[in-house]
Write a structure and sequence with these properties.
By secondary structure, this protein is of the alpha/beta class. It has a domain of 166 residues: Diaminopimelate Epimerase, Chain A, domain 1 (Roll), CATH 3.10.310.50. The chain has 8 helices and 8 strands, in the order αβαβαββαααββααββ. Strands 1-2-3-4-8-7-5-6 form an 8-stranded mixed β-sheet, sandwiched between helices. A hairpin with a 4-residue loop joins strand 3 and strand 4. It starts with 5 loop residues before the first helix and ends with a strand. Keywords: Membrane, Signal, Transmembrane, Transmembrane helix. This is TPM domain-containing protein.
């Protein structure tokens, strides 16, 4: 069998890897409302590729002129159809018919794009949307995603289900906390080992515990009777605010999937 030269193999690998990366970002723009020129679409795709690579999430920019349904549900179902339930993704949707723009998040992007960060992104985008500079709005959207992902999930992060009021908290460890825990584990393990060796070093192989002489057994009979039981319930209020402080992310369910996000009119 003829062998492929190593240099040719490397070239083919790089070309193949590049084509896969390009293909991943190639279907990220769905501009049915013709808001962007062909050059602008190319620039947006080039910007999306590296962000998708580091976030491990799909990024979509979508626009249309004929949507009569709720813009939130449209954005959620669009991403649901493209990547499935609870997969990593984020969509910037522009509804030209209802004059609304929406950010929808799924999977890990719910945690990176908290309510506070989404509201800040919407604040940054809104002036461009009102001025009709949709390309600048899309660029700002992408820049904010990359910046917030680099900052990481905020400490004390939690999700709030706006439909049930359920709060799910997440613990994230900082680099300092990881180092402290690692050092403490080593120190405590060393102390435990030293004490154990010091205590039993003269007893290995020779010492036998006289368990027959030093052990006792007492058996008693006990009956437990259930007299009464009580159940306490409480209602958790819903959190219907679109915004939020700290590291919280409001979520809702669409089509069996969990989504976050927020939107504005323009």
């Amino acid at each position: 069998m003829r062998k492929i030269p190593f240099t040719l193999f490397v070239v083919l690998f790089l070309l193949f890897g590049f084509s896969l990366k390009a293909q991943a970002a190639d279907d990220s723009i769905d501009d049915q409302a013709s808001l962007f020129s062909s050059e602008q679409i190319t620039q947006l795709k080039e910007a999306i590729g590296p962000i998708e690579a580091k976030t491990k999430a799909r990024i979509f920019i979508v626009s249309n002129t004929d949507n009569d349904s709720d813009s939130t549900r449209f954005a959620d179902y669009y991403m649901l159809d493209r990547i499935g339930k609870n997969q990593n993704g984020i969509t910037f949707y522009v509804d030209m018919n209802q004059r609304k723009f929406r950010i929808s998040t799924s999977g890990n992007m719910i945690d990176y794009m908290t309510d506070k960060r989404i509201n800040q992104t919407l604040d940054d985008i809104e002036p461009s949307m009102r001025n009709g500079n949709y390309f600048q709005a899309a660029q700002t959207f992408l820049e904010n995603i990359g910046s917030y992902f680099d900052q990481g999930v905020p400490g004390g992060h939690y999700r709030v289900d706006t439909e049930t009021g359920k709060i799910t908290r997440f613990k994230t460890l900082t680099t300092t906390e990881i180092i402290i825990a690692f050092v403490a584990a080593i120190v405590l393990s060393g102390i435990f080992f030293a004490i154990s060796v010091s205590k039993y070093q003269l007893k290995f192989g020779t010492y036998k515990y006289p368990f027959r002489e030093k052990s006792t057994l007492n058996l008693t009979r006990r009956n437990d009777v259930l007299i009464n039981s009580f159940i306490t319930t409480r209602r958790i209020p819903r959190n219907n605010s679109n915004g939020g402080s700290g590291g919280g992310s409001s979520t809702h369910s669409t089509g069996g999937g969990t989504f976050g996000g927020g939107g504005r009119s323009f």
